[in-house]
Amino acid sequence: xxxxxxxxxxxxxVDEALSLLAGVEGAKVLAGGQSLVPAMNFRLARxxxxxxxxxxxxxxxxxxxxxxVRIGALTRHRTLEAPDLDGPLASLLGVMARHVGHMxxxxxxxxGGSLAHADPAAEWCLLARTLDATVVAGSVxxxxxxxxxxxxTTVFTTSLRSDELLTEVRLPILTxxxxxxxxxxSRRAGxxxxxxxxxxxxxxxxxxxxxxxxxxxxxxxxxxxxGAEAALIGNPWEPAMWDKAAEAAMSEVNPFEDIHGSAExxxxxxxxxxxxxxxxxAS
Length: 283
Ligand SMILES: Cc1cc2nc3c(=O)[nH]c(=O)nc-3n(C[C@H](O)[C@H](O)[C@H](O)COP(=O)(O)OP(=O)(O)OC[C@H]3O[C@@H](n4cnc5c(N)ncnc54)[C@H](O)[C@@H]3O)c2cc1C
Description:
Helix content: 25-40%
Oligomer: single chain
Bound molecules: flavin-adenine dinucleotide
CATH class of the largest domain: Alpha Beta
Distance between the termini: 47 Å
């Protein structure tokens, strides 16, 4: 199918894009187009106008300043496979990026587009929630900094206003004391995951000091698994504790069921994926 007719704007600056978002009723931002264009072609989305932000300079930068990494909204998934960064965050980004769809999708699709689209099984949404990212959104009235916990509201829905442009996402820099792991399960390579787990732990002298454990694909938004985190913190970083964390994770998630798997199956997956993510972090 083909989309319904729409107007097309290609602003060259963020300010121009913000004026268009404020002035053109119902307009949608076009980033990589990997989710929006198929939805338009199926006529699930019928925006009267598209604001293509691909020609705006500077929205695709990754910068590390102080204790933060800023990822520009237009950074392509493909760039994040081998980001120009050091340390554990670079490893985590690289591992997760390679699970986002297929290569042609990664070449076009963007980090900011993925967050704005808010698929509950999207890798970048899980990363943002696990690391307590801050989402930066601009509009003609100013800039908002939105904590990831408040950004994702439900399936395919965020707290972004229709006149706002997501410009960057801020993540904490991880130190050499941080260990990172990620595991997901999908039926075919390149498919969205049925479930996924990210683990970030700070280990000192063999003991876990901080733990951030996030899960995607099991709820309407990515979630932090506080029970699993509590099972790890203060304990030795060893497989017996990963098993305890896996048990906690299985009991605290309340997965939905769909044609791809039952709730019980997803719950079991949580345990297996968490153990794998811990084992990956340890290696
Ligand atoms: C076959 C297939 C498999 C895929 N598999 C995966 C997968 O395994 N994991 C995964 O995470 N994703 C997957 N995707 C989706 C892909 O990652 C998309 O790139 C992503 O969801 C949307 O990013 P985009 O840049 O293409 O955004 P677009 O499609 O351009 O936009 C998506 C939505 O976000 C809004 N938007 C985009 N950018 C901004 C912005 N800066 N500010 C405000 N609003 C904005 C748009 O208006 C639109 O509503 C898959 C896609 C396909 C087609």
